[in-house]
């Protein structure tokens, strides 16, 4: 018999998952940057924990909230009429607030000011295109994974994001909540406020393209 959970339980899971996701992204970036002067090693020390944390939080929170942790993912679920508009709005608010809180906590745990506005510029054309690609791929992985490899979904998403850190020049944010949160840490994983609307626009475009592509791929013929 399928377990049923309240809206509040779902909302708390979206907040906590987004919190731990950004805590990992920012915290592991700070730690890796402290431990190595080699940007490649630092990026590796950032990508691996992020991928592993996604496996964990999707596995434990997925049965309760669906483990979106990403406004783009919630947007596609709303497009597909899996969640209501009210749930979509609530999820997005909680994802953003959870992510910002995770960034603040990461700063504090590494003895940095709670909030430092990032000065790292990330708004050139190559990174804009990278975010379209990264988000398009993420939508494919999640929604084709739900159709054809549901049990492997946590590993698929975690593996994809860890890999996309390396094959995109933007290091694959692919998440508006994470993008908004990361502007509040002037560290290795930060993004300047100027880059935030650029990244979010690219992420929305990538998600829309991904949504229509998934709809086409899963539309079986008679």
Note the main attributes of this structure.
mainly alpha, 72% helix, 222 residues, 8 helices, Glycerol uptake facilitator protein
CATH-defined topology: Glycerol uptake facilitator protein
The helix count comes to 8
| Gross geometry | globular
Radius of gyration: 17 Å
Query: Judging by the overall fold, what is the CATH architecture?
Result: Up-down Bundle
Q: Report how far the terminal alpha carbons are from each other.
A: 32 Å
**The biggest beta sheet, please?**
none
What is the count of structural domains? 1
Strand fraction equals: under 5%
Task: Give a structural overview.
The mean pLDDT is 96. α1 (7-35) packs across α7 and α3 (71-79) packs parallel to α8 (195-217). The longest helix has 29 residues, at 7-35. The radius of gyration is 17 Å and the shape is globular. The protein is mostly helical and 222 residues long. 72% of the residues lie in helices and 0% in strands. It has a single domain (7-217), classed as Glycerol uptake facilitator protein, CATH 1.20.1080. The protein has helices spanning 7-35, 39-65, 71-79, 85-109, 125-148, 153-167, 176-182, 195-217. It has eight helices and no strands.
């Amino acid at each position: 018999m399928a377990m049923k959970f309240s809206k509040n339980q779902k909302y708390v899971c979206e907040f906590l998952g987004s919190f731990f996701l950004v805590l990992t992204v920012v915290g592991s970036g700070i730690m890796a940057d402290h431990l190595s002067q080699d940007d490649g090693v630092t990026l590796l020390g950032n990508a691996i924990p992020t991928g592993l944390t996604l496996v964990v939080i999707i596995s434990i929170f997925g049965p309760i909230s669906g483990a979106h942790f990403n406004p783009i993912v919630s947007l596609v679920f709303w497009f597909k009429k899996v969640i209501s508009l009210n749930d979509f709005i609530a999820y997005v608010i909680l994802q953003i607030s959870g992510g910002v809180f995770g960034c603040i906590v990461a700063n504090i745990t590494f003895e940095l000011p709670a909030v430092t506005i990032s000065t790292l510029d990330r708004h050139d054309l190559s990174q804009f295109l990278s975010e379209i690609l990264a988000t398009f791929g993420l939508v494919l992985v999640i929604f084709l994974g739900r159709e054809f490899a549901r049990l492997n979904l946590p590993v698929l998403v975690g593996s994809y994001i860890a890999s996309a850190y390396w094959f995109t020049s933007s290091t694959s944010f692919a998440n508006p909540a994470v993008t908004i949160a990361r502007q509040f840490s002037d560290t290795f994983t930060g993004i300047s406020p100027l880059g935030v609307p650029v990244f979010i626009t690219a992420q929305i475009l990538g998600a829309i393209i991904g949504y229509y592509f998934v709809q086409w791929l899963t539309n079986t013929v008679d």
